[in-house]
Amino acid sequence: MDVKVKIKNAPEFILERSGYALIDPKECVNCGVCREYCPSGAISEMTREVCRICPGCATKPGMTFDEMRDISANHACTIGCPIGISPQGYLNLIKDGMYEEAYKLIWEKTPFPAVLGYVCHHPCEDECKRGLIMDEPLKIRALKRYLATALPLPVQVKYPIMNEETVAIVGAGPAGLSAAHDLAKCGYGVTVFDSSNEAGGMLNRGIPMFRLPKEIVRQEVKALESGGIHFELGRFIGTKQIENLLSEFDAVLIATGTPKSKSLNIEGWNLEGIFTAVDFMERVNNNSDIWRHPGQEFIENGEVVIIGGGSVGIDAARSAIRCGAKKVTVVCMECGEEIPAHDWELEEAKAEGVVIMDGWSPRRFVGEQPKLDAIELIRVESLCKDSTGKINCTTIAGTEKIIKADMVIEAIGQKADTLWDTYKGNTKIFFAGDIESSEVSVVKAMASGKKAALYIDGALQGGKLKDPMELRKLNSAPIKEKIYPATRQKDRYYPIPLLSVEERISDTKTVAELVLTDTEAMAEVHRCLECGYQHVDSERCIGCGVCMKVCPKGGVIRMVREEQEVR
Amino acid sequence: MKRQAIVVGAGPAGGTAAFYLARAGVDVLLLDKESWPRDKPCGDGLRAPIWPLYKEMGIWEEVLKYATPSAGVLFGAPNQTFIGLRGSNSPLCGPRRIIDHIVVKAAICEGAEFVENFEVTDLIIKKGFVKGVTGIYQGQLTKIESDMVVIADGSHSRLSHSLNLYNEDPDLVFYGARGYFEDIDEMSDMIEFFYNDIFYPAGYMWVFPMSKTKANVGAFITEGALQRSGMIIEDLFDWWRDNTELGYKRMHKARLLGEIKGWRLPSCYGPRDNYANGALVAGDAGNMIEAAYGGGQDLAMLAGKDAAELIVEALKAGDFSKEFLAVYKDKLIKSQSEIYGPYNATRKYLFTDPNDLNEFVKMFKDKEEEIELPEALTQWFGHKIGG
Question: Are residues A282 and A410 in the same domain?
């Protein structure tokens, strides 16, 4: 049969093919690798419908057909990941005992499988169909940590040097290093600069050690280094130095993040004992002697008030508990469901003794110079964000309340250096990470780094990298593929194992969450409904067989001849 | 150890197949994912065509001990008129938790080996032949080989799915939900079906009496109609009570005992190609539900018996190919046609257009006392086809 072939940037032509590829939906783990490699765009992702009609067959309440079909057709873990990893892919490779292939699948998208296994806020789990339709979502992040732990060391791969062009990356945080990884994989010579003596950025400084041990970051950074990425640490890059970089490198990526904390400009701001979250976390993480003086006197047996109910605020609160504070209170303007921190963070924090005061706004710091003694709060009546994202808050007069505070940690957001503003518009300079967007999360910073790598590649070589995010679209699978929860009632569910509260708050380094055991991990991967699979459009397939070669599982794709009848 | 036959699923189809295989001296292993006895959402109706099977199996007396007889069938029409027609062969009502277990126990007594809590997840296929099953037993992946497999794993059948022996027509796939209710009002001594526009085609609310005030009440509706209604299936109970005269009469003070449970019922108009190399499909797994009332226990048990007889022949011949097993369809046509025939006509001429039932009630209301249901239906079909 003749097929019309259209490959990016090339004129359409007619090809006579001898056969086409066929993917076995039962065997396919939906990793999406074949789709990314397919030269003719013939492969797409299918998503199966999950039934939720009859009462009593799953713990979630029954749904109408429309609701069930809407959720089934539009949600899948594969479209939830900001950096385009296919959780279904690596979960099912784990299930088949193919740990290295599973790890490689993640590594292709990010050099930080283990880091994400510890700290990713797992938007994929919010998209998990099992969670939306049946009971609880798959514990995808915990399984990623299990996988990274089960394998002895990060994958050691030498990046190929194929291109003449070189790229400088300023900032060795998650955004910068993700871009470095993608560009190095693509064959560019990459040098990463950072003012700190250790690569990792906020992974080291901002995220508490009880969530992410430094050793994990070090291991994965080391793999980048031994792969061939050059690091220049302890080198501050300012506007003066950037000129040198511009003459030395073909492109410069600024991924310096948001190192500066915002602080409140209210009465008493200059009292002793008021810290910003970044400053506080940096001190805790460096375990520096700063706590001997002057910090320790504030915190040990003291009452600590954190201002701000985001993830950073909760991390700071839980760290304060671990530093020996007698009482820790988080004050935030939002109420209940509106609190920006994730539910699981709030729950773990509460279990550790953190008190959440929602719906309060700070009015002034109280104390006799130089020392802070208390903070005055006022009840919030309403909160609204205007179009620029600025929060307008109205308060209720007469509801003022003073609570004791030996120490205040402000976690009300961070800001980028304004240093680089004049360089926006320079065609050799690119931006990525928190500096670029207001979304603060590790995985989103990585996504932004990956996007920047795409733009840089586009500028330098006209875009060999395909944007895999553009290829992610769900198509509804035929009805015979429908999944019935009734057949899955015996799936075992284990909650994520945690240390007891006493054990986990004993110091600042003990990781609160335990890694899944083999039994727990296996039970968990078996809960996957395998709702997605890849499908070849036989009208568009050119029969090249690339998909068969790149499939990490094997035995999934076969080439069939035109005359062969397909069941 | 290789077995002669494995039967997957111990419901009416699987239990019956295992019974007749064991009676013929075949080494048979019966597997089920539940712990027995187990509850199963159903209208609990046991219709006349299976009574001879219970007698053959020697369990008729025991079934009668737990089943409630009904005096006939009551139809509530969409215009809220109704008619009760007596019948000498009107269905018994027996809770599936008990009746299914009686069949399984009979199979065990006959010599079948029964393993519960064994969840079969896949078929072993070698050179295009089904050669056994794999499943989860006591947390372990377990493989058992056999010459033949009877696939009777119910309406969500993974196995018939995997052999592509499955049908998903939205006008033929029904959903059922039932609860046991106390304090039902104005209930007759008949099994009762209530038809309303939103349930069409063929769907209804049922009330099957278990005592003077207690009944098995359920909703039965096609996938297409449920989708059009925009409701979740539990809502149909409240809708019926709040929006119809007859529903209100029955349910205005009714109390639910336990919870409402639901199930999927894939129906069809007659025997299909329910065979593959080394495997036969029986019961809900093969869509063996008639499309008028959604009854399937009789079809399932007849198929179970047919499958068992054919496997005995296949073992004798040593031939498990689908060519040899193709006669299964002929056997099913022979045994099941007397069920499919009248019920297909009923679906077509009585349960497709809401006006038909209004007219049916009107036509026979005067003769309510003297005419039995089969006779009324015969006259009705004559009237419809002739007119």
Answer: yes
